[in-house]
Recover the amino acids of this structure.
C-alpha cells in the first residue's frame, strides 16, 4: 500500500495555493465581513457575511467576528461553486449542477 501511495503522490502535479482575504468592519451591534479570492485565471469572487448582536447580550467582538467571517466564507463558497457551474456549462453547452 505504501508503494502505491508513493506512486500516486509522485505523479500528482505541484501543490497549488489560493489565498482568501477577509476584512471585518464593526459598527455598534453589527459586524460585517467580506471574503475575497482571486483565482489563478484572475477571476475575483467575493462573499459577504453579517452578524448582529442582540443588545441584551454581552459585547464580545470576537464572537461577532467569527460569525460574520463564517457567513462570508460560506457565501464565498456558494458563489465560487456557482461560478464553477457557469464555467462547466460554458464548456459543455449543457446546464450544469455541481453537488455540494
Amino acid at each position: 500500500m505504501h508503494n502505491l501511495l508513493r506512486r500516486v503522490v509522485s505523479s500528482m502535479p505541484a501543490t497549488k495555493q489560493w489565498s482568501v482575504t477577509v476584512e471585518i468592519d464593526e459598527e455598534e451591534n453589527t459586524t460585517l465581513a467580506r471574503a475575497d479570492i482571486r483565482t489563478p485565471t484572475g477571476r475575483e469572487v467575493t462573499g459577504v457575511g453579517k452578524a448582529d448582536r442582540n443588545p441584551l447580550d454581552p459585547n464580545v467582538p470576537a464572537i461577532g467576528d467569527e460569525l460574520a467571517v463564517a457567513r462570508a466564507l460560506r457565501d464565498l463558497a456558494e458563489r465560487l461553486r456557482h461560478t464553477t457551474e457557469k464555467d462547466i456549462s460554458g464548456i459543455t453547452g449543457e446546464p450544469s449542477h455541481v453537488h455540494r
